[in-house]
Amino acid sequence: MNNQSPTATEPLILVADDDAHIVRLVELYLKKAGYRVAAAEDGDDALRKVRELRPDLLILDVMMPGPDGMEVTRGLRRSSDIPIILLTARTGDVDRIAGLQFGADDYVTKPFNPVELVARVQSVLRRARAGASQTPPYQAHLRAGPLAVDLDEHRVTLDGAPLQLRPKEFDLLATFARFPGFALDRERLLDLVWGSGYFGDHRTVDVHVAWLREKLSGSAVKIETVWGVGYKLVVPDEEGG
Question: What is the model's pTM?
Fold first, then answer.
């Protein structure tokens, strides 16, 4: 590692995590590698400092107070191409895929080796400088069979006809549309739709699924129960229809 003190010309890394110990650890290793470092303690603070400081890269904890890491990533991707590395204690494919689909450049699970994290930072920054960032563009439109979701206009059509949904019904259906055919457990759905800071129970998901099923009734698009797991969206193409 480079032990030289960072200068104003070195990249600025914003570390957003409500765990002060993790922030200090990451800051120590990044500074040893020659980076400048700023810290944010929650999602709102991260969004504010991205605007004020214009960092070169954001390291973002998924589970934070206020807007969580997924929400921050999704919001930033509407207007910014800042490289983002997500930190999370969860190792499931759903969390990783969701983070990348929301626009993150990389995904690191806790506990992590800080040397590896620095290497990930270096790699993401190299891609960004080369103009070859692997960050997927913000997806304003989702499609799952005859179901079309416009995230910007907050509009859903089914077989071309508009579907009237409450705000959380929309968010839940959009989440299913990101993972057609993929079984999603209730805890993941709570995190992805209501945010990791939500303290409601799994019945909230069940109630909203029941409402969605009523509005999808009569169509070929179904939300099926996966016993012992949760729910999955099934569309005609997956059944050969």
Answer: 0.63
